[in-house]
């Protein structure tokens, strides 16, 4: 059925606000004038006041194949009639094995093994644990250190915030994991402002890894984790050659390389993964979001043959990795993910994302020169428009612009003073124009 109309009984009245402690939200402010989403279809959300708004962020960078994608909806309806839940601990159901095989085909190189989780945070924790346990499985138990990077976001678990590079998300949670260090961010607005695609300057930032390994003794380091494009801190594409150099340094020192592709995976950059786009093969990829089109929570860690195989020794009856989630490979999530893959592959949505990205790039770079626009960055259908911060006040310029956009019918996401854009791949050129025109008006109206 289509999204509910304004007079739908579901819209009458506002639910009680007190009990739900909302995640990553200014709860008291939100609850004063709640803006509720009550329906979705294709490129649009419907708000409780009946308005349709264009979703320029794909939910939370996850609904890549469009809202209520018919393939996904049909697959979920069919699955719930057959099998609601089955554990994958010492038992199993066909959809999880079938999906894993499809993901192994979809992923580059010999990333042929899949560990299912339910979120990006769980994928990150799983990948970090696999990395440390891998070295131990090979008799190299001295490798325990983990290296992250400033400005990278890796979810909210203790493992994830330990390697993440966002001070505000770490500082209130006490001591984190031992033995973690951070590379410098690659963000370099002085040299790279208004880059199109991967910026020219900054490959040498990867050399900090070499120095850091020497500092800590490389034989103590288990893994390096980076987001190929840092999303949540403002859309920061990697400098040309940077990821390849990280790979080379990791290889020289026997350190595993993990790409956190929770945002960049599943076509966001116009290729299956950032690993495909850049030609750099990590040892593990963490994924979630676009994996199941956001319809059912699901995450996955993709693992190369050599890493997986290191665990497959000892008594055949022993559990090789003491790790897993009740809902790892949940039947409904598998159905959603498999149908999402069909949409990406059979409906050509990833090719569509690639074809549309120059159009989005041109549209957004045309905003250069507007008052306070200090940078535009983009790769694939992922982009950020950075604004000069307000001198004072309680609201950031980013929030002011995002609010203006919503009032004008387009939902964007403010990450600090950067407006992040990651629309579903089903977007039309006319809708890209609508985003750009709305942003222009909002920027001019918030000077
Ligand atoms: N890693 C990256 C790169 C992300 O962008 C996110 C979420 O935005 C996560 C991990 C955490 O994912 P989740 O919120 O599903 O736990």
**Largest beta sheet: what is the strand line-up?**
4-10-9-8-7-5-6
Q: Main β-sheet, in a few words?
A: 7 strands, mixed
Under CATH, the topology of the largest domain can be stated as: Aspartate Aminotransferase, domain 2
CATH-defined architecture of the largest domain: 3-Layer(aba) Sandwich
Straight-line N-to-C gap: 42 Å
What is the mean pLDDT? 96
CATH superfamily of the largest domain: Type I PLP-dependent aspartate aminotransferase-like (Major domain)
Give a nutshell description of this structure:
The protein has 447 residues and is of the alpha/beta class. The chain is built from 16 helices and 15 strands.
What do these coordinates show?
The protein is α/β, with parallel strands linked by helices and 447 residues long. The protein folds into 2 domains: 9-65 and 348-445, Aspartate Aminotransferase, domain 1 (Alpha-Beta Complex); 73-346, Aspartate Aminotransferase, domain 2 (3-Layer(aba) Sandwich), CATH 3.40.640.10. The protein is built from 16 helices and 15 strands. The protein has helices at 27-32, 58-61, 70-80, 94-106, 120-137, 158-163, 167-170, 189-192, 207-216, 242-253, 274-278, 305-311, 331-346, 349-365, 397-407, 429-445, and strands at 37-41, 44-47, 52-55, 111-117, 145-149, 180-183, 221-226, 256-260, 284-287, 299-304, 373-379, 382-387, 410-411, 413-415, 418-421. Strands 4-10-9-8-7-5-6 form a 7-stranded mixed beta sheet, with helices on both faces. A 4-stranded mixed beta sheet has the order 1-2-3-13. Strand 7, helix 10 and strand 8 form a beta-alpha-beta unit. Helix 3 runs antiparallel to helix 13. The protein is globular and about 65 Å long. The model has no long low-confidence stretch (mean pLDDT 96). The chain binds pyridoxal-5'-phosphate. Pyridoxal-5'-phosphate is lined by residues 119-121, 124, 153-155, 227, 231-232, 260, 262-263, 288. Pyridoxal-5'-phosphate binds next to helix 5.
